[in-house]
Amino acid sequence: MRGVVIVYGAEFQTGGDMRYAAMVLVLACLGVPVFSQEKAQDGPTNDKAQKTYKEGLEFLHQRRTELALGEFRKADKQDGGHCVACQQKIIKYGIELRDWKPAEAAAAEMAGQAQGAKNVALAHYQFGALLTHEAMDKHNDELFTRAHEEMIKALAAGIKFPSAIYADGLVLAQLKQDEAAKARFEEFVKLQSENDPDRQRALRYISQPELARAKMAPPFAITTADGQRVSLDDLAGKVVLLDFWATWCGPCREALPHIREIAKKFREQPLVVLSISLDTDEQKWKEFVAKNEMTWLQYRDNGFDAPIAKGFGVHSIPHTFTIDADGVLQDEHIGDAAIEAKLKKLVNRARELQATAKPGQ
In the chain, is it the N or the C terminus that has fewer CB atoms within a 10 Å radius of its CB? Predict the structure, then answer.
């Protein structure tokens, strides 16, 4: 069952430590069952805490995240440590600010107070996800071990929880427990539909567990403008250039001839160019694509908050991502950039991999 994304931290930019950012992207793409938490909906019950909580929300509206985090911590304390909504926000913005101590305290508090199998599972999963983020940030195996322990507790609640199984596989891979990781991914594959992009990614991890430790591009599946169903893992063995753009974006229009030239130059080679528009006006997008003879793969993601743009952490356009034949993120650029040399090297490697996979051909 697909549902809300509850692994916090998806708003991180993909710059900086690419290995950490890539794990954030992978975890952020996981869907989980929608577990009801009435306390989380209602916020704190204490009058003072309610006022403080609202002040925190106002700081968020002003994009003053550090002040908001302080208010949510204060509201939880005023509510006697029982404000689930406060705790969830402390976890989310603690990760965003990499303020790990209060985030861990809130996660432990939430896990300790959760009641009912679903809420217990969700609380431990959130705690495990937090520890995974922290472990990636600090390169700390002890934190990965703790994350694994929290995922075990989430699964011990006795509910169907594919996302916890998948996330535990990723954690075990980081601990280089490849056989245990493969077992988790095999368990996950049995629970998911054949066309599910996370299932396709899990299959790759089963055959190549070392990829679960790489800075993999997050999996997705789309239907392009010409009706083709394309998933990122279907393109294994090919270099992929993702081009995020929009018709209303002046720099994107200026970069268009460059993208067109790349699509033309590499047409007969193991490289796929996929342009992902963030236009909200479908008809305007279709007309622009036709008028400008954009004959390579085209898809409309409907804004910055749409799934693929959000999954890749796209906040500015034009924004390109270069993904190698193994699905590993190699480069990203905001604005037009000279990327042909890098693409040529990756294409040559893709050819070598194809020759190795098909000896004698």
Answer: C
